[in-house]
Amino acid sequence: MLTAMVMLTALLFFTAIFQGLFNTNRQINRRMKKFLDLNDKKKLGKKRFNFIVQMQVYRQQMKERVLTKKKSDKLEQMILRSGVAMAPEEYVMFQWIAALLLGVLLFVIKNNMAIVIFGFVIGFMLPRFWIKKKTRERMKKFNDGLEDMIMTVIGSLRAGFSFAQALKTVVDESDAPIRDEIELLLKEMQYGTSMEEALEHLKERMPSEDLDLLVQAVLIQRQVGGNLALVLETIVHTIRDRNKIQRQIKTLTAQGRISGWVIGLLPFGLSVALYLIEPSYIGALFTHQIGLMLVGGASISMIIGLFLIRKMTTIEV
Asked: pTM for the complete prediction?
């Protein structure tokens, strides 16, 4: 009974927070209805029209009340690197919704406040893990295609094209994410941004060591002159040698990485096996408060151990 009351209080507390963040101003809504295009209202239908307007109001209020300029810029940069079409305020809303849903789900499954709080924390962190995963995948795809991109630029330069024209050739012949990033770079240049600033923006969006070599070579060539195609060819050889060394290191450290995964997953496998063989033998760990604390401490220790093994087997080149 006490747990249900505490859970109900927590839900009411979060409801109050969301009402404070997203409570719409009726006067603002009336003004918006006066000035918004009535033709769009007819096309979309009243309910859908009101929903779209309401979501725009929620997003604006989230941006003004929760996100500072510095935090908003940081989130926007992180989301931009992942290639996910999402605004910073939408990301924050996604975090709170995921936390609330997972917390309520665990409360329904297991009426335990410690597990519910753990669910809130995990749910709040899930969107960040997803964004980080998408960023790693996009960065790997970008680095894998960077060598072909530079070779395309070299071929265009030797054919007599300028560097900007060579980048247009890259847009026509490359796939995402290289195509998207170079296209954005060219658009920035069309809107008045200098090539130096556009290249710096590209480097900020895609923090790649190989890309940094390319950008530095182009910037130096624009200042002192020289044969850019020859310089880029040298960079291609450097990238190939670095990738070769990285593959060798990955092969040599494979045993350590596999050992880390085996050590990390072994306790979970043994727990499942013991539960299937004799549920009462291991059931106390998940039904008693002290058992749950022991399981939580062991899980944290295993996560720290996996993190240390990953650090030891990750060698920067």
From this structure: 0.66
